[in-house]
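Let us work through a complete example step by step.
Step 1: write down the sequence.
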Amino acid sequence: MKFSEYKIGQRYETKSIKLSKQDIIDFAKVYDPQYMHIDEEKAKEGRFGNLIASGMQTMSTSFKLWVEEDIYGEEVVAGTGMNNVKFIKPVFPDDELRVIAEVIETVPKRRGNGIVTIQLNTYNQDEVKVFQAELSALIND
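Step 2: predict the structure and record it as tokens.
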């Protein structure tokens, strides 16, 4: 989508993806090897009573779901920032995540492009919001 086609308030809903226990462990072993993500027995004794996905995995999964919608298309130049990142609720094994993305800001730049800021709101299968962040990207017109 070209920069000039983005309008504040536009909303998009992504498909969903289920994170298995093994998905959570595999991601965490590489990127966030803390006990609550990789040690099922110790995690059961912890605050959440179970393994939970790394916040980085929730963020990466949210970004993946958004990008796979292909709204940016070939017009995206580069990401420019991520702000107001909030890990709201834990993500457990077999949670199914989906994202509602909303255009919250458009800032024209020179050379026929601009910055589009999207708020990503990630929900589990029970409609509980688990993650939120503002994602900005430079988009050509």
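Step 3: interpret the result. The chain is about 25% helix and 40% strand.
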